[in-house]
Design brief:
InterPro entries: Anti-sigma_ant (IPR003658), STAS_dom (IPR002645), STAS_dom_sf (IPR036513). This protein is an alpha/beta fold. The chain has a single domain (3-116), classed as 2-Layer Sandwich (Transcription Regulator spoIIAA), CATH 3.30.750. The protein contains four helices and five strands, in the order E-E-H-E-H-E-H-E-H. Strand 4 (80-84), helix 3 and strand 5 (104-106) form a beta-alpha-beta unit. 37% of the residues are buried.
Length: 127
């Protein structure tokens, strides 16, 4: 596998919100690229992230580690991260590892945007 086999496109940005569509495989070889590119978004002030994983075919432990690192980086600057359209195999792995209790998972990108989208003053609306 090579870094070219991971596709990451930022489809939407609005204020601190960035929606990135991820496709391909998130593994030992591609996870550093995912982490690096999304951390760049955070450094640019896009600290409310939605990762649409609908086109991810495979994710290993390095991929899970990248997701955790991205979540932690967003949290450390007062932001948030949500996963959207998680494929069944990855969803099962998130549940088995207990990460589904840490990472916000939503059925669609629209649901994830509603959950983490920009808020006045960067605050989450209590639900």
């Amino acid at each position: 596998m090579s870094e070219q086999e991971l596709l990451l496109t930022v489809e939407e940005t609005h204020g601190p919100l960035a929606v990135a569509k991820v496709g391909g495989e998130i593994d030992f070889h591609t996870a550093p690229m995912l982490r690096s590119r999304v951390l760049e978004l955070i450094e640019q002030g896009r600290n409310r992230l939605v990762l649409d994983l609908s086109r991810v075919g495979f994710c290993d432990s390095a991929g899970l580690n990248a997701l955790i690192n991205i979540w932690h980086a967003a949290q450390s600057v007062g932001g948030a991260m949500a996963l959207a359209a998680v494929p069944p195999r990855l969803d099962r792995m998130l549940k088995l590892t207990g990460l589904d209790t840490v990472l916000a998972i939503h059925p669609t990108a629209a649901d994830a945007i509603a959950a983490v989208g920009p808020r006045p003053g960067g605050e989450q609306v209590a639900g």
